[in-house]
Structure formats: C-alpha cells, structure tokens
User: What shape does this take?
Amino acid sequence: MVLESVNAGVLSILPPILAIICALFLKEILSSLLIGIFAGTLIYSCFSGLNFMYSIKLIFDFIIENLANNADVLVFTSLLGAISQIMIDAGVASGYTKWSEKRIKNKKSAQLSSMLLSLICSIDDTFLCLTVGNVMRPIIDKNKISRARFAYILDMMASPMVVLMPISSWAAAIVSCMNTAGISGMQIFLKSIIFNFYAVFAIFLAILSSITNKNFGIMKKFEQEAENNNDISADPKTELELELEPEKNKNKSEPNGKIFELVLPILVLILGAIFILFDSGGFFSGKSKNFSEIISNANSSLALNFGSLFSILISLILFVPKKLKFSKFMDSVCEGIKSVTFINVMLVLAWSMTSMCQTCLSTGDYIKNMISSFNISETFVPAMSFIVSSLLSFAIGSSWATFGILIPIIANVASSMNSIILVLSMSAVLSGCIAGVNCSPVASMGLLASAGSGCKHLCHISSQVPYAILISVISAIGFILAPVIKNIFVLYFILIFIITCTYFFISGKKIKF
Assistant: This one.
C-alpha cells in the first residue's frame, strides 16, 4: 500500500497512546488496538482532506495487507497450537512422571525436575504451563511444596524460558514485529538473547531458590504451611474439579505415556527448523560462508513452518492409532489451531497499527525527534525502554501486545544510535514485557500458572511479586551498566553477585565465601 505520510505533529503519537489507555480501562486488548488503528486512519484522513468512509476503508486495507505479509507467522503459531494440543490429548507427558518419580527424593529434586520438564516443553509458554502443571502437581504435593511455590516455578519458567528460545511461538512473533519495524528481525533477536536480563535472572533465581530451599516474603509463609500439611495457597475449587470432573480435564495425562513420545516431536521440530534454516540461508549450496550470513539470508518463517510440519507428521506416526484415532488426531489439530486464534488476531491488529503509524503518521520519526530535542543520552535508552515496557505490560496484562506496540517505536528511536544500543533496547522491551506481567494480576500467563498449579490466583501473584521486583531492579541495573561495561562476562559477574547476595540477605541465609 503506497500512502504519503502527513505531518500530524503531536497527534501522530495519539493512536498508540489511545490504544494503551483503552486497554487500561477496558481490560480488553483487541478492541483497544482497533480503536488505536481507527484513530490513526481518522487523523490521516482529516490531514489529507479525505472523507470519513476512507478512514474506515484504510482500516481494512491495513489489516488485509498485514494478514497477507505475515501469513507465514500465523501459520506457524497455528501449527504450534496444533502440536501442543496433540501432545496434551495423547497424554505423552505421563512418561516423564514415571521417569521422575523414581529419581525424586526431596523438595529440591522435585522442583528441579519441574524445571527440566519446562525446558523440554519450552516451544510455547501455554503448552509448558498446562503440561508441567498437570504432570508434576502430584509429585509437588507429595514432597510438601506449596502450590504458590509451584505456580511461581511455572510462571518463571514459562515466558522467561520461551522468550530465550529461537525456535518458539515467541520468537516467531518477535522476529515478525522487528521485521515490520524495518530492522533485521532474526539477527537482532539472536543478539538480544544474552542481554535479556529479566528472563535470564528469573530462571537463575528460580533455580537458586530451589537448590537452597530458602524463600522470602509471603512465599516463606506458604512453604511453612505446606510443610505442616496445610497448604493455604491451594485452590479448593481446582482440586474439586480435578477430582469430580476428570473428563473435562483435557490436560490430564494418560498412564501409558513414554518419555521419548514427549521429546521426539519437539526434537524433530527443532532439528527440522535448523536444517531448513541452514538450507534457505545458503549453507549447503555454499552461498553463505559464516553463521551471520546464513542467518541474514535464511527464511526463518519457512524453517519454523517446515519444522512444525515435520513434528506433526512424526506425531501422526507415533500416536495414530495407538493413542488417538485419526478422527481424534484431526480434532486435536483443529482444537489447537482454535486455541491460538486470539493471539493471531492480536498480532494482526498490532502489526496493522505499527504499519499505519509508520506509513501514515511517521510516529517513530516524531518520537525520535522529540527525544533528540530533550538531549537524553543514548546510554539511558535501554533502561527507559525496560521501565516503559514493564509498566505497560503490568497495566494491560499482555506481553505480546506490549512488544507489538513498543518494538516498532523503540526500534525507530534506537536504530540511528549505536548498534549495541539497538540490541539492548530490544532486549529491554522483551525483558520489560515479561517483568510487568509477572507482577500483574490480570496477566493471562499468571492465570495459566495458577490454573496449572492448582493455586489460588491472588496467592500466586502476591507471593511472586517480591521475586519479580528483585529481578526487575537487577535487570534495570543491568541495562544501565550494559552500555558502559563492554565485557558481557564482567557484567554478568557483577549482576549475579548482586542478586545472589541480595537473595541470601532477604531470605535470611548466611553467605559462606
């Protein structure tokens, strides 16, 4: 679509701001994004001397254009939803239960075993929460671990783990948003992984607290109660539903699952995607001589789609007819695709608003010029991006909506700065969108973690917030220091030292040097 942008001044930032405000008050992201898009097309029509109906037509034009341009990403998220549902309905995760029950002897091994299963299931955060929650809950209860603690593990191993994986639902959406913003999506995403401080330290603190078995805040109270067989964080409603209505619990594993049935489809997805990535990047033909060239030339969406297709074919061979009838297998595929419809619609609307703001209103240029006029040092741009992203995701309760809105804006601001500032700023947006939802009572991932663990939702959020705030403070320090301390190993040593000492101090455990 070829449109000549207009100089709308301060009104050019109204669409994203209006979308954010509507999301805050309506608590509904799809209608908020639509309102933002409509505001943008209306402003454009007014400044261009066009009529009201043209602004309505533009909404459909942007949606159709972005639907067509990003169809490969939508296909991948749909296929990934299908894979997740197939594996849930086939009950393959019960094999991990059998394997872990023989090896789990205490609280530490129970929690670390949950994290290992989370790593295996890290292609999608929803799949991770539901699978790990239902498989590990009996083992967690047996070892007297509170449901609040289990919900914390699920939440901290879901989005933080998946956002670090180059082959995942998150990676596909993030890379697509970066490409739409006019930067090299896969390259920037891969470089940003090491600087995603919140995700890295969320996993680090979850592992550290599991090994030391020390907690702080209200989590300590929940753990003490669980140790006395009085887990006040457990949700009685969830327990009753699981006991009386097992036929409604689609995520309950069958007793005859084998661990390779869980691992193989995911392994095929990853290896298949890597093979196609290298093939499309010119590795086998000799066109690309190093990894950077391969990634630059590769078609990442094609690789992810082929990997997903290979995974579905392997699942068909594994599960039909031994575990699922063919008709049930296809029902699972359809149900899985249906489960990601909301995410796909949200992505299309976020892309449409990004495209509209860039094409019609030059929103990014206006914000960049505004920041330049304030003479803000580029050193502080990553830290500012982290804070804004955290606040926005906390308010609207959606990581995907947050990075869908902010990536194009921050990319436009940081693209003219030092290349490391661009990478750090993208990492900061991704870190912030997870930090915010980990503290938000309206976040869907928090609700999934509560449901998967069988924990009262308010107990989960209230006990997790102190941990999330600690990680957020350390992450903010990281984004302030990163532009100054060029050596990543020195930077991580400093941050790990700070978070470890702070954790031991708060939890009341003496540090032995």
